[in-house]
Amino acid sequence: MTAVLFWVFGIGAVVTGLLVFRLDSMAQVTFALLASFLFVAGEVVLLGLGYLGVVIVLMMVMEMEMVIMAVFMIMYMMNPAGLMPMSMFWSCSCCSARPCSPSGCSGRCPSSRS
After folding, report:
1. Is the pTM of this model over 0.70?
2. Residue 26 CB neighbours (<10 A)
3. I want to staple 74 with a disulfide (CB 3.0 to 4.6 A). Which of 4, 18, 80, 85 is the partner?
4. Which residues, including other chains, have CB under 8 Å from residue 4's CB and lie 6 or more apart?
């Protein structure tokens, strides 16, 4: 039973850790990060380090670090709910195939020779 829980917690930690980078909503990202920490705490408890596992849970959940992080991210993000897909690249209206510089679009597509 311990081996099964070890694999479930391990896979759960990796999956929720990857979800942190794949989700658009900052609230969902916060909960995925919290779940990842809880899975890691479960792994630590299964390894026989119960005190350290409890400390991880208390630091992340009981001190409400994750809730405070979620509140600040939702307050300061332009798209906190993830309703509009976000892109980390600047795009031109003249050429959507390649990103332009952050200073703005030059008015011509970067791939054109003119």
Report:
1. no
2. 20
3. 80
4. none
Measure the CA dihedral 83/103/73/63, to 10°. Answer: 150
Residues 6+ apart with CB under 8 A from 92: 98, 99, 100, 105, 106, 109, 110
List all residues 6 or more positions away from 69 whose beta carbon is below 8 Å from its beta carbon: 30
d(CA 37, CA 25): 18
**Residue type at position 43:** E
Question: For residues 28 and 21, is the Cβ–Cβ distance under 8 A?
Answer: no
Report how far apart the first and last C-alpha atoms of the chain are (Å, whole number): 68
Q: Going residue by residue through the chain (114 aa), what tens digit of pLDDT does each one get?
A: 899 999 999 999 999 999 988 887 777 888 888 899 899 999 999 999 989 988 888 887 666 677 777 777 777 776 666 666 655 455 555 555 555 555 555 555 555 444
List, in order, residues 6 or more apart from 78 with CB less than 8 Å away: none
